[in-house]
Amino acid sequence: MSEEHTETTGVDAVPAVGLAEELPADRYIDRELSWLAFNQRVLELAEDPSVPLLERANFLAIFAANLDEFFMVRVAGLRRRIVTGLAVPTNVGRAPTDVLADINRTAYELQLRHARCFSEQVQPELAAAGVRIVDWEQLDDADREILTDYYEHHIYPVLMPLAVDPAHPFPYISGRALNLSIRVRNPRSDKVEFARLKVPQMIPRYVRVDRRESADDVRFIPLEGLIANQLDGLFPGMEVLDHHVFRVTRNEDMEIEEDETENLIQALEKELLRRRFGPPIRLEISDDMDEATLELLVREFDIDEQQVYTLPAPLDLSGLFALTRVARPDLKFKPHIPVTAPQFRTSSPSEKPDTFSAIARREVLVHHPYESFSTSVQAFVEQAATDPDVLAIKQTLYRTSGDSPIVAALIKAAEAGKQVLALVEVKARFDEEANITWARKLEQAGVHVVYGLVGLKTHCKLVQVIRDEGGRLAHYCHIGTGNYNPKTSRIYEDFGLFTASPEVGRDVTKLFNVLSGYAIETDYDRLLVAPLQLRSGLLERIEREAEHARAGRPSGIKLKANSMVDEAIIDALYRASQAGVPIEIWVRGICSIRAGVPGLSERIGVRSILGRYLEHSRIYSFENAGERETFIGSADLMHRNLDRRIEVLVQLTDREHLARIDRFFGFAFSDEVSSWRMLPDGSWMRREVSEEGEPLPDLQDLVMTDRTEARSRRPR
């Protein structure tokens, strides 16, 4: 549910939006507050009693992890610009300091609500179901003996209490780590001293009390609670007066001046080291902390009152991810096994599909995680690596897993003597270190590794395979909306198009030449490519819909994206709405457009759908007087995507694929499916029951059923 790693630097510049005087000044919703509204929707899933209990705990963890990243990047960038006096562009006409105050107030209110959801709803209900989080006082002597033994053998040896006094300066506190602030008294001098103890991050956050218990009755104690009850042994001869939990979030935004460096990898590694020591952005403290300790922390971190979040324990509920591993299927979503796309089915489960033959017959559209990544994308790359007729493979890699079969296949192909090009985006936020490691491993295997264009991230999802078929070179391509990551493919919703179209092959060849060499290319047939033509291509199509509406021809726009911020696109949609174009927008996260405002956007409807899978695909569909144009791809409607990234949208042309997208949109935009709807004031209302009071079906359940039933349909 994460906003896929916010990946922006500071605050995006606002491009010029022509004819802005025709539209009201307050036509945009602040992007940061809109993001907080998205995370509130995640929290509402945790509060929903109809969601299985361990899944509710998972949504609590997702909310916490999302908010950490929001502060590390978005709030950090905004605060840095304010503090340093840099210009802070804003499209909402308000002072940046006022926006920052609203962000802090709203985020704090949500964190308090988040804590209440855990303590008053999820934790008691889990306990009633046999999954209990306990504290030391609730344990008997036998339990304590077991935990003390575990502490002495697995925890105590790695603890490092650090004193703070004239001989011991205040220690560096790493970001996102839990810490105990401890006050001790020296009985000889009666002097009170302060110490800090970091809760080890390599030890499970929730410790099983008794490993012999059945899965129907399990107990956990928070690691910090276990450590806190063993403090006397860490400070022998001293009197432990009290302890409190705190946690700091640091600025982990990254700035790399690529034009001034000869070696991107070295510059990135240096910046990664600097990021560890970014300035504090948020201090979370337990609500029992004494004033003296708080004053010390505020002084040492050099933060203001607005940055202090006083919360009930436990802090950092992202630790609840660990509870989802409990073997209680009755407390989780019913498992869904992805089906193999009909075109890639084989007569035996052990038989590998011949992806090239299937794609050569007809373009194939796959929908993850409802359809299997391993029997489509992974099988395609693996077959290319071993096929003796394959001469070359070109692929972009933005985020992939540590044990990626995709990377292994590229290495295998290079070792077999094939030409292999991998464009590794080492600047993918929070995956930089992993991507550097994989880039070097690929280079060592003989893969041609490039890092994209200076000043631009390469975010498009492309694979191209060149195959010798009887003396003729055939181009097989995959263009997707999601990363080549087999792990996230099981929880991220994405589309991918496989095609042997010569037209697309030429387009992708041109684009890879841009990415790996020196070329400026704007002439594509079925692709829209950022940053040179994607925004203009979308704007032209939006205006075309307005012209159709004014002429009385069929018109309509349906969009699905993760985020919508770009002012030029938003203004064009407002004008299309005023011209009579019906517009339906499906957005997961940030949305700066206002829906249903009289005189501005009566014909614009905006909804959001969240669930077990992260809605990640991007789809742009235009009615075009009955000659519909539909694109899928990697680009959201944000400045970074349209101006500072290589992004690709590909046009779908197969009638069955267009019908499938229509069916998908039909589910999503139905009033009979659970979703959140944006109101004219910019707030969101969840609609989860029908007018008759019956629960509305979940979109993702509907698509699961639809894809499972499609398994019995024979491809044409």
From TrEMBL:
EC number(s) reported in the record: 2.7.4.1
Domain of life from the UniProt record: Bacteria
Binding site for ATP: 66, 492, 588, 616
Binding site for Mg(2+): 399, 429
Name this protein carries in UniProt: Polyphosphate kinase
Entries under PANTHER family matching the protein: POLYPHOSPHATE KINASE
Coiled-coil residue windows: none
Signal peptide stretch: none
Active-site feature positions: 459 (phosphohistidine intermediate)
UniProt keyword annotations, A-Z: ATP-binding, Kinase, Magnesium, Metal-binding, Nucleotide-binding, Phosphoprotein, Transferase
Cofactor: Mg(2+)
Residue ranges of the region described as Disordered: 690-716
PTM (free text): An intermediate of this reaction is the autophosphorylated ppk in which a phosphate is covalently linked to a histidine residue through a N-P bond.
InterPro entries, alphabetized: PLipase_D/transphosphatidylase, PP_kinase, PP_kinase_C_1, PP_kinase_middle, PP_kinase_middle_dom_sf, PPK_C_dom2, PPK_N_dom, PPK_N_dom_sf
Domain PLD phosphodiesterase: 611-641
PROSITE patterns registered for this protein in UniProt: PLD (PS50035)
Reactions this protein catalyses: [phosphate](n) + ATP = [phosphate](n+1) + ADP
One protein family per Pfam: PP_kinase_C_1
Gene label: ppk
GO terms for biological process, alphabetical: polyphosphate biosynthetic process
One term under GO cellular component: polyphosphate kinase complex
Organism phylogeny: Bacteria, Bacillati, Actinomycetota, Actinomycetes, Micrococcales
Keyword DNA-binding: no
CDD domains in alphabetical order: PLDc_PaPPK1_C1_like, PLDc_PaPPK1_C2_like
UniProt feature, compositional bias: Basic and acidic residues: 704-716
Similarity-based family: Belongs to the polyphosphate kinase 1 (PPK1) family.
GO-annotated molecular function: ATP binding; metal ion binding; polyphosphate kinase activity
Organism: Leucobacter triazinivorans
Chain's role: Catalyzes the reversible transfer of the terminal phosphate of ATP to form a long-chain polyphosphate (polyP).
